[in-house]
Structures are given as C-alpha cells and as structure tokens.
Amino acid sequence: MGFFFLIIQGFHLLWSMIHLLPSMIHLLSSMINLLSSMIHLLSSMIHLLSSMIHLLSSVIHLLSSIPSLKQCAHENDIRDLLLNMSQPIIYIFCNFVKWENE
C-alpha cells in the first residue's frame, strides 16, 4: 500500500511541475522583456545626454562667436558659463546612474 502511495505522490509532483513550467517560461520571458526595456531606456538617456551636450556645445560656440561678448568677457568667464550650464545635465545623469545602481 505504501509503495502505491509513493507512486501516486510521484505522479502528482510530476503533474504539478509540468503545470508550473509554462508559468516559469512566461516569467522568464517577462524578465527578458523588462531587461530589454531597461537597456532601451538607458540607451535613450545616453542619447539624450549626448544631445544635451551637443546643444550646450553649440550654445558655447554661438556665444564665443559674438564679437561683443568676446571683447567684454574673458576666456575664463566663458569657461565658467559652460561649467554652470552643464552642471544640471551632469547632476541629472549622475542621479539617474545612481538610481539604476540601487
């Protein structure tokens, strides 16, 4: 009698594992999709950062091409302006990277 009970329990365990398998496959698929979305988000953030830096570079180039600004502002002032304009971008990016690592 105990032998048949073990066989029935074995089949019940096998049956439960077979029914669990599709759920595990679906979970794995969902995790892969989530990872893909996170990588896409990170890529978009890097692209955004690159675009913002390019914009900042263009603004600095524009500012440095204005003759009256060149005459009244020293080179250090223009560098300070660049640094002050880029700080919010650097702050946002660093906080995003910090949030991703948590």
Low-confidence runs of at least 5 consecutive residues: none
Number of domains as seen in the coordinates: 1
Number of helices: 3
Order of helices and strands: HHH
Mean pLDDT: 78
Number of strands: 0
Computed structural class: mainly alpha
Approximate strand percentage: under 5%
**Rg calc:** 29 Å
- Main beta-sheet annotation: none
Keywords: Membrane, Transmembrane, Transmembrane helix
Key descriptive features of the protein:
single chain; 102 residues; mainly alpha
Summarize this structure briefly.
The chain crosses the membrane at residues 6-29. This protein has 102 residues and is an all-alpha fold. The chain has three helices and no strands.
Structure description:
Keywords: Membrane, Transmembrane, Transmembrane helix. The chain crosses the membrane at residues 6-29. This protein has helices at 2-64, 67-72, 75-101. With 102 residues, it is mostly helical. The chain has one domain. Helix 1 runs antiparallel to helix 3 (75-101). The chain is rod-shaped. The two termini are 55 Å apart.
Helix-strand blueprint:
Layout: H1 2-64, H2 67-72, H3 75-101
Helix pairs in contact: 1-3
